[in-house]
Predict the 3D structure of the following.
Amino acid sequence: MSRLRRKFFERYTPTVAKDLLGCRLVRVDRGSRLSGIIVETEAYRGRRDPASHAYRGKTPRNEVMFGPAGRAYVYFSMGMHHCLNVTTELPGDPGAVLLRAIEPIEGVAQMIRNRGLDEALHVADGPGRLTQALSLDRRSNGEDLITSDALYIESGRRPRRIGVSSRVGISRARNRKWRFFVVGSGFVSSGRPAAAGTQNP
């Protein structure tokens, strides 16, 4: 498998979100390689998207979204957990893909310990669980996934069936079907879409 290059991320954000399914997220922590197949994502499109952190412009929190594509955007959500996003599109045109869930592949025992669990099924099936399993926090914010030796994404095999829905846990732009997931995967999160039966504008 080869690492994804910047051009992969410099595209329309929902397309990147869908194409990330089946790719492998890799975290190297204290010499140990932890990885998993990406099985669930969500797209956020900056100024075009009321649900995006960048909708109202640049702030110290979201400034990574306004830079080059292919960087980690990590934020602390609701005072509870960290979320890992990958920036998309061109500089100045903020976009990001939230990585919602992975299927653990390498370093599974370490991920289980990081989460304080006994088995792998629910070790990374949600944004906060994913970052905890991979030992990620705000220190990784801004990490360049194209050049980093600690955090990057490798190419993978496109899933046979991809599900689409509205995003989870949002109150604005609820009708946009910008959540993508691998149909039939037992590692997709249990989060409920914000709306059902809607069309993507």
Summary: Residues 53 and 62 are 7 Å apart (CA to CA). The first helix runs from residue 6 to 9. Residues 6-182 form a domain with the 3-methyladenine DNA Glycosylase; Chain A fold (CATH 3.10.300.10).
